[in-house]
Amino acid sequence: MWSIVRKECKLMIRGKGNLFFLLVMPMLFMVLFGSVFAKNMAPDDPNGQMLVLNQIVPGYTVMFVFFIILTMLRSFLGEREFGMLARIAATPLRPLGYLAGMWIPAVLAVLVQCTVLLAFGHFVYKVHLGDPVALAALVICLAVCGTGLGLAISLWVRGENQGRALTMLIVMGGAALGGLWMPYDMMPAGAQLASHFTPQFWAQRALQDVMVHGAHLSGVLTSAAVLVGFGVAGLLLALLRFPRFLRSAVH
Amino acid sequence: MIPPAISLQSVRKSYGANLALADVTLTVRRGTCFGLLGPNGAGKSTAMKIVCGVLKPDAGQVSVLGVDVARDPFAARRLVGYVPQDITLYESLTAVDNLQFFGGLYGLRGATLSNRVQDALRRVGLASRARDRVGTYSGGMKRRLNIAAALLHRPQLLILDEPTVGVDPQSRNHILELIRGLRADGVTVVYATHYMEEAEAVCDDVAILDHGRVLTQGALGEVLARHAPRAVYVAWANDAPPQCPEAEEIQAHRQGWVLRSPQPLTVMRRVMDQAESRSIRLEALELMRPSLESVFLSLTGTSLRD
């Protein structure tokens, strides 16, 4: 399993698109939307500007976490298409070891991504991060959630195009509906209700509770549990599908 | 009794309505190079994947070096090095990175892994390019590295599926030499190919597969003696073929004729007599070397590359 982990980490680091999608693009979004909205909505009010940044920094962090699904999709489908999975299946590695080996680097990537993006928000925009234990726990739950869904989608989709479409639906639809682009309170009532079905809503709410309202771990347990629930559901779906995915690779 | 390297007993495998293997029974002796021959789609890759435990047969028994593959596929996989037809390497990683990855899958670690990686790279002639990204390699170099990845755990049985497809002559020779070297070291090599001349160059035993059935198998010399039609090639300055009652079949070939006969020397004598008596200039008169290509032709009635 650790061979797969090491290999995936190397491939992620050397993949040009990964660095851009997971780190550079969200920082560009933060800078762009931070300067546009914070300056325009509250030009002379530092507190108002901070309110906007408290929406944007966790919002874009959460939004771009779900782009890990694209990275996982490319890894899994690439391994299947180019015969690598069939070759790995001829080694003594257990199927679960393979799955775990592909999953762990994605989790690590999200942990690094969240750390960099939140640190960027803190050092560049002076955004308060709150209780580090609660924040770390939430980031871990968010990583489990995003990568769990990524695992499920990678193994269930018929091809890369379908996977990309589904990922965009989850990333963009979840961001719009989950209150990442505008504060929850400003959303229509129907959208507010629907947002509860997106992991993005729970992640954003919990991050804002910790970062803005000073909540500790005990105050965000429900949100953390929902995020882990999404992730575990994804992992279970992936486990259910993996034998068929493997068969399709070796035939 | 020492069990054979591979034993397939009445193995059957279908993909939906397509029968890939039909009651295939094969035995591969230890320490030999065994050629599994046949055209594309004959069932060679399916047979290999079943031996590696990657595919499950619908029926039949498979054992590798005495290990029942169905009962303990992971133990069987530890004994086997499998080189698939596809080049399965990570192009953005170096040769060393790739080999360390594959070695790790077989549980190799630390200094042992490093030594095995260097050894494998030397063996396939890529030590000087060890730190280059695989994406910068030629097709032949990738094929060699593809083989190196299966040698790290020092398997007792190496399975090569079409290892020379699309390679330059230099790499092809390197691969054939590598196979000879491995066999000399006591490794059993199974070599699946549709290039019959390569099989003749390296294999001790062969089996010819077509449409999922074994047409013949045995020692290379025996198979050639049993099935290769004996033939004489004649080219002479005459539009008509030689008159020869001993010839079972006469076919136009290149600038002359091929006369198939169980008595080729009689045929040659008769052709020479005719040429002399009719004053026809004889340009070529050769006893044709039996080949696996002609064995396949005689067994199936079609050319291998049809």
Could you characterize the architecture of this molecule?
The complex is a heterodimer of chains A (251) and B (306). The longest helix of chain A is centred in the middle third of the chain and has 31 residues, at 95-125. Chain A contains eleven helices and no strands. Chain A has one domain. In chain A, helix 6 crosses helix 7. Chain A is mainly α and 251 residues long. Chain A has helices at residues 2-14, 16-41, 46-65, 68-81, 84-89, 95-125, 132-156, 160-177, 189-195, 199-211, 221-250. In chain B, strands 6-7-8-3-9-10 form a six-stranded mixed β-sheet, with helices on both faces. Chain B is 34% helix and 27% strand. Chain B has helices at 44-52, 73-79, 95-105, 110-123, 139-148, 169-184, 196-202, 220-227, 264-277, 292-300; strands at 6-15, 18-28, 33-37, 59-64, 67-68, 80-83, 157-161, 188-193, 205-210, 213-219, 231-236, 249-253, 256-260, 282-287. Chain B is of the alpha/beta class. Chain B has two domains: 6-226, Rossmann fold, CATH 3.40.50; 229-289. The mean pLDDT of chain B is 88. The A-B interface holds A 2-4, 6-7, 10-11, 14-15, 82-84, 86-94, 250-251 and B 15, 49, 52-55, 74, 77-78, 80, 82, 84-86, 88, 90, 92-93, 97, 100-107. Chain B: GO terms for molecular function: ATP binding; ATP hydrolysis activity. Chain B: Pfam families: ABC_tran.
**Overall mean confidence score, pLDDT of chain B:** 88
Q: Architecture of the largest domain in chain B, CATH level 2?
A: 3-Layer(aba) Sandwich
Low-confidence stretches of chain B: none
The percent of residues in helical segments of chain B reads 25-40%
What would you call the structural class of chain A?
A: mainly alpha
Keywords (chain B): ATP-binding, Nucleotide-binding
Organism (chain B): Alicyclobacillus macrosporangiidus
Pfam families (chain B): ABC_tran (PF00005)
GO molecular function (chain B): ATP binding; ATP hydrolysis activity
